[in-house]
């Protein structure tokens, strides 16, 4: 299966109003901002979208609204993961996937499955859909690391598993995957700050948080790096690096939503157990945004 998910993907936020309803007007504005910035695809219902706190009805509404407003301008990847394999499989089989180009599925959290368990989990998900599947490895959030051997076995045995979003920060593991993967399989950065060094090792892009606010700058970083122009890419890396660090200081999407509020894109509200950015972080972000 060909891989169209390279370059800059954006794990889009789900904006909320002050009373914590989904703010569809701000979602529309953010979608247009991201696409006009030159990004390559959008991830709806990723962890940055606070999917864990959305009801089933809200998830459907967000995805259908996103399809309508994207209007085929870029591909849409749907976040569909969890720690109940059969529930994820059921969701994929019952969802309206018209207009969806791929699936992003995070490693199961809390259960802490073995590597055999992870393999069977993702194999079941791949078998539940004909769409391309992107694995998402983020041990810092899930306490579940998808080892290189397991990733490679999934890539070899499941033809529609075509990429991994890697956010382990383990460069030895990342290089092992890149070195031994099938030609069609891509490694994507799941950590904005590490995207440039990952591309230098052979990664093919990123699924980004910072591109919610700075789609043009981050896309230019990735395009330059993929062309091998690391002098140009470094300009954007060091332009954004302090800002990226600040975005994650109080968790995600707390920081990016505060930044988007400062930019007039949406309000800073998040749902519990997350809380809005502190005054200190807000002032820091204002300063960094002015400098950028």
The neighbouring-strand order within the major sheet is: 7-6-5-4-3-2-1-8
What CATH calls the topology is TIM Barrel
Low-pLDDT parts are none
Total beta-strand segments: 8
Secondary-structure arrangement, i.e. CATH architecture: Alpha-Beta Barrel
- Category from helices, strands and their pairing: alpha/beta
Output the number of helix runs.
12
Characterize the main sheet: 8 strands, parallel
Q: How widely separated are the two ends? A: 39 Å
Q: Fraction of residues in helices?
A: 40-55%
How would you state the average pLDDT, rounded?
A: 97
What is the subunit arrangement here?
single chain
User: By CATH's scheme, which homologous superfamily applies?
Assistant: Aldolase class I
Number of domain modules: 1
Describe the structure.
The chain has helices spanning 24-36, 56-70, 85-94, 115-127, 139-142, 148-157, 171-180, 195-201, 215-226, 230-247, 254-262, 279-291; strands at 7-11, 41-44, 76-79, 102-106, 133-137, 161-166, 186-189, 205-208. The chain is globular and about 50 Å long. Strands 7-6-5-4-3-2-1-8 form an 8-stranded parallel beta sheet. The chain has one domain: Alpha-Beta Barrel (TIM Barrel), CATH 3.20.20.70. With 292 residues, the protein is α/β, with parallel strands linked by helices. The longest helix has 18 residues, at 230-247. The termini are far apart.
